[in-house]
Amino acid sequence: MSGLLIYLVILLITAFLAPMLISRAGKAAPWLLGMVSASGFAYLLGFAGFISKGNTLNYTIEWLPELYLNFSLYLDGLSLFFALMVTGMGALVLVFSGNYMKPYAMKHRFFFLILLFEFAMLALVLSGNLITLFIFWELTSVSSFLLVGFYHEKPEARNAALQALLITVAGGLAMMAGFIMLGQIAGTLEINQLLKSGDLIRNHPHYLPVLLLILAGAFTKSAQFPFHFWLPGAMQAPSPVSAYLHSATMVKAGIYLLMRLSPVMGGTPEWKYILTITGAVTMILGGYFAYSQTDFKKVLAYTTISALGTLVLMLGIDTDISIKAAIIFLLVHALYKGALFMIAGLIDKSAGTRDLRKIGGLGKVMPTASLAAIISLLSMAGLPPMIGFIGKELIYEAKFALPDIGNLLLVAGVLTNVIMVAISLALIFNLFLGPLKYPGEKPKRPAFALRIGPTLLAGISLIFGLFPARVADLLLSPAIKSIRPTIDSLKLSLWHGFNEVLLVSFITVAAGITLFLLYRRVNPVLTKFNNEVITFRFADAFNKGLDMFLHLTKKKTSFIQSGYQRFYLMAIFIMTSLLAWYQLIYTWPDIENISFSKPGIYEILILILIVSSTLIAVSVKSRLAAILSLGGVGYGIGLLFVIYGAIDVAITLMLAETLVLVLFMVVVYHLPKFTNFSSNASRLRDAAIALLVGGFMTGLVLKAGQLNLNPKISDFYVENAIPLAHGSNIVNVILVDFRALDTLGEITVLVIAAIGVVALLKLKTKKGSAT
Amino acid sequence: MEVLLAIVIGLLYAAGVYLLLRRSIVKLILGIMFFSHATNLLIFVAGGLHKGQPQFASDGLTAVSANPTDPLPQALILTAIVIGFGITAFFLALMYRFYQATGTEDLDELKEGENK
Amino acid sequence: MKSYIVQLAAARLLPVTLILSMLVFYRGHNDPGGGFIGGLMASAGFIFYAMAFDTREAEKKLRVSPLMLIVAGLSFAFISTLPSLFAGNPFFTGEWVSLSIPLLGKLKLGTPLLFDFGVYLTVWGVIVTIIFNVMEE
Fold first, then answer.
1. Whole-angstrom Cα distance, residue B58 to residue A46?
2. How far is residue B11's CA from residue B19's CA, in Å, rounded to a whole number?
């Protein structure tokens, strides 16, 4: 089992070595990288027989089992199916990119990022623990961000990248919260354990919040309405990225998660309604917007959204037949959409534009690619003999089998498919057949490396369509069985008799052809309608919201961060003293219980000295007088220490006070004179704050006198001073023996202060630069 | 006496706060010194007031004077005083450099300096 | 400031404060005093000397750089914690040796004394460093 882990590590290392390989091995490098990916495909394919017998593999490295945190890998039919898509598409895309990215200076970075993505995506689908899955989920978001923003000199690309990142990561965070709650409910985050505790989770009172949080993650990742708008924006990425991340793999991560958790959380009315409605809305919206686009890649992006909506819808319907349909359609879509995105890139590269109004009839210059494109488009339209036909038939069947809202969904599905048929036909007849049309130079025949990917994918679409049974047994049935073990095996064939499903298919195709014939007339009207009537753009609204948020935080920051030191202090003092006052009033010290000692005449005199010195220091205008009266305060306190038997402290304080005085005397004439900055009002305000703080400190002292602290600590020191430390000056014994580590720290602080003084005074800055 | 001392400590804190809120940097330092005095006194009073003999352990094991002063707060205050000296010196040097570099003692100038 | 009487007083007082500070430091374990107080006293003598003459003279009188005092002080304080490790006791345990010296009587030496000496030197060095630097400005 750890073979999977080894392969993941190899993939990660390959990612880091890729930049070097690209500059050393030149042309061969992309082929070599593709080989790494393809070998993973082959290795995983080796498990197919084993898995199809109903076995699973589980491999766990314990990390923090108390918090259900483990690094684990889990291989069953579903993850194998996705892993094969990731590695297979990866190999084709890497080869394709080798030629596509050749002119770009940053191609080293590109290959690193796309391999990093492949690693993250593969690890995601192989994860056997939800937290492991979450980590790789976020890694795919990050690598997608970097790839969408690959042309970072373009502001639109940066903006789109940021938008995609913010939406997917925000969803990811919600999802993590959901995972953690799930872990609390089930007591585990291991997928193979969770699969067994579905009933427990579905009946838990927190089921709905958990579901909503996890769906937030899945829906943002898989571009479901109303989060769909990041996906068309992400078309700013280079075409191989669109082919790989934004059609075949990353956007399917949300679908994967839904499939994975379907046995755990699915089947409830909440699950059904949320998924069905979201999926249906996304499906129709995607189809509608796809119809009115003029950029080839944008068309593909919106059809992808529509397809993702269909998948969510299928999972929401949640019957045996709908799950089968979802798995088939997943494969169908990955095959044709990957091919089409690569062809979009290839056209962009050889004709210099993707604008559908400017190019046409490309079949004459690029026959192979065009053939692949036409096959793929037929699959997208759901026409026989493609595998897309089988997928569509199953989807219709799933909708038919639904009792209550089935008819409504069927109408929505037919509408979407009519649009798909029309778009496919329009693309086939305008873009590939018909008269040649191009804006700049005559398009060149694309290189072999560019053609191989789409051709292979289209070929598979065709072959699977003709011979579906073998694939069904080996790959699709195990995947379906891991979603729903009770399901019976998949039996696929192109022809399954004449029935109502086929009838609907005929209607769809007929309507699609009609819509296609009207394409030239309807499309400009629709485009106009979309551009002028529907001025609301989700992406713009999102950006506006983001701007408003930034504006708000800026306002808030400049309000709180005034930049004036005394306002910070004021806020601290007022808040602290108000809180302390509240607590103090709440537990007002019972003054009667305090044991008073009678003040003697000396104490009174000393206190008078301290008080009068304080008042002088605060109010006097002369620096010297202020410093001297501060000294008076210090000496007064020293005298108090003498009276109350703290002789060591008293000596230290007197000496230190003298030294401070000396220090001030030395610098006093270098110091500025007191200037009167403040108005009387602000003085009054400050005095009020000062009294507020002083008052609560007084209360604190009175309160402290009441507390009966544990005297054992001091008693221990008193009793053990001689036996343990051979000294009778307990204060000194505490300092140098009992608490010597503290003292060591304290003298270190002193040394740091001294170094600071030397540094401040001796290391002069150059003239002109302020400190 | 405790009440009187409590009031004095409160007054010292109040003086410290008032000085800290001034714009002049010299007064800021005075404020900090008031704070350290007040805190030292606070810790001392919190340990309990006992007039008279400083406490020394006698050679007999536990023969301690009848009305002992708590040695623990004293040890705390002693180091605090010396550190307080170090901090004061550091602030003084800092202020001196600030004055040299900016030519002003007005703390509000710091904000303007930042925006330039 | 450069008054002859003050200079004479400072020169005569310096050794007295030094000896006094050593005495205060040594008896600190049993009577009022100790490293902190001793260090403060020792530095007070030098500061008075520096005020009477100037810092350069005072530094000359000190013979070593004040920074060296700090280094030595911290090192003593730290080294004093090590013997306990060799004696198999926890770090920082005080270890004592009793010596009987003729004439002086019984002399108790222990690592806390060494530690306190480190404190003494550090405090002395720190304060002299700070004040000399400030005075030179």
1. 86
2. 12
- Interface partners of chain B (CB pairs < 8 Å, 3 or more) are A, C
- Residue A685 CB: number of other CB atoms within 10 A? 14
Q: In angstroms, what CA-CA distances link A588 with A29, A594, A702?
A: 79, 12, 9
How many domains, in total, are found in chain C?
A: 1
pLDDT higher at C5 or C84: C5
Give the span between the Cα atoms of A685 and A615, in whole angstroms: 17
pLDDT digits (tens, 9 = 90+) for A656-704: 999 888 888 888 777 767 666 677 888 888 899 999 999 988 888 887 7
Output DSSP code: residue C78. H
Radius of gyration of chain A (CA): 37
Confidence class for position A125, pLDDT limits 50, 70, 90: very high
Domain extent, residue C76, equals 4-136
- What are chain A's domains? 269-517 (no CATH), 565-731 (1.20.120)
- 8 Å CB contact between A361 and A473: no
CA distances from A39 to A7, A32, A240, C102, C137 (A): 9, 10, 20, 89, 74
DSSP secondary structure letters along A558-570: HHH--S-HHHHHH
Nearest-neighbour CA in chain B from C119: distance (Å): 11
Residues of chain B numbered 44-73 and touching chain C (CB < 8 Å)? 54, 56
In a domain, B88, yes or no: yes
Full DSSP string of A139-201 = HHHHHHHHHHTSSTTSHHHHHHHHHHHHHHHHHHHHHHHHHHHHHHHHS--BHHHHTT-HHHH
Confidence of residue A426 (pLDDT cuts 50, 70, 90): confident
What is the domain count for chain B?
1
Residue at B58 is within a domain: no
For residue A10, is pLDDT > 50? yes
Nearest CB partner across the interface for B72, out of A648, A713, A729: A713
Q: Are strands C105-110 and C96-101 parallel, antiparallel or unpaired?
A: antiparallel
At B26, which CATH number?
Answer: 1.10.287.3510
Write the residue in A634, A678, A699 that is nearest to B37 by C-beta.
A634
